[in-house]
Amino acid sequence: MPLVVKQFLFAILFLTLVSLPASAQFTSAGWVTAAADTGFPMYPIIMPNVHFWEKIYGTYSENQGVLHDRDNLEVIYGVVDLVTKNTPGAAKINEKLIDFARLTYKNILTKFAEGKLPQTNEERRIYSLFKRKSADVFQAASDNIRLQTGLKRHFRAGVVRSGAYMPTIKRILRQHGLPSELAYLPHVESSFNPKAHSKAGAAGLWQFTRSTGQDFMTINDLVDERYDPHIATEAAAGFLKENHRQLGSWSLALTAYNHGRTGMLRAKAKWGSYPAIFALHGGGSFGFASRNFYSEFVAAFRVAKRLETDHSLIRDRPWASATVRLHGYAAVKELCQYFGVSAEEFSRLNPSLRQPVLEGKRYIPKGVELHLPATHFIRERIRTMPRNLLYSYQLSNIKEKIQVQAKKSQAYTVKKGDTALSIALRFGVSLGALQRANRLNKKADVQIGQRLTILGSTSPRNGIIKGKAKRKP
Hints:
CATH architecture of the largest domain: Orthogonal Bundle
Number of helices: 22
Mean pLDDT: 84
Number of strands: 11
Strand content: 5-15%
Radius of gyration: 26 Å
Strand order of the largest sheet: 4-3-5
CATH topology of the largest domain: Lysozyme
Number of domains: 4
Distance between the termini: 42 Å
Largest sheet: 3 strands, antiparallel
CATH class of the largest domain: Mainly Alpha
């Protein structure tokens, strides 16, 4: 980082810390002044970022691309009107629109870096966005233009969905002694879509990665509890509580939710406080997403709270469910018949069960807690359930059947150059089966290092596909 930039950032940090003896903290009364780093402080240094994300969540639509400075979110160059995704060739059209706008602003900034003064109204507007008007500032800005698409409709849909989950989430947070404001974190993570799955392999309402999730939940070829909102919330509560215990503030604990606890412990040891980390920490994996994560949370909370008072927005209602824990292996079909529940309803209520189980190819493992409609009939069926129903599959041949099923599946870790189709062809399974077994999206996107379950084949095929030699996994 150039010395002049460091000096500028230190000056900002110093003024921030000495000009206000207290930080802003959220309480039931709103954002107020607090004397210590407790609660969810609105540090002056992050206010421009919070206001930026409030506009992204509440003002700009999905068909608007905001071109801004990556480091100083107060600097917004312009808004590009994009064509809708269902327009033929939308991706290429939008790419050209964005590239043209980005190049326009880059040329203006480069002109200023060369010492030239603004001539047009647009140039004067952009020139006025910068407090320091030096060549190095404009040169750095010309290479620092970023695009952020608006999320207004997406965010509103998340607020609608949140109505079904908020009561349960807040209850679990209270049981763990955690502040209820944390219930708004899924707005940033998944927009309250319990089926959400990121390109990085994070999944569910709270977007746990497989490696982190396995510390709190069951994640295997049959069950992925990241998709169960109740279980995932319990996991998130435990994870956030430990983050706060080790890091000492919610601004650091929430940043660690994105950046990782170890990384934030190192950052805290180096810089001391969240404002200092925000202003000065960089390099490695602490990029735009990590630096903005806490600001996004504060903005999402503020926008969501406003939308919750909008009577024209009808939020989903919570749904009650009865639960029963399996003491042995069981099949979905027989349970649906006994409880009089359709396969679709059973699948909706038990999102942690993976496709091979729901399709009847594998048994539901013992110990799984099943969710069922909370009707009087089903509660009676649970109360009077024959003991042998949940044990009925612990017959003499159950181990043999499970072993046979296990042999028909294996795990594969995605390598560089792999696609879902090439993996499916290599193992002799259909692309659709691979998608269903691993909850891949419609495009069947896979990531390097992602662990896939391969059903229906015991070994990779050898030979030639489409004229190319197949690699051995």
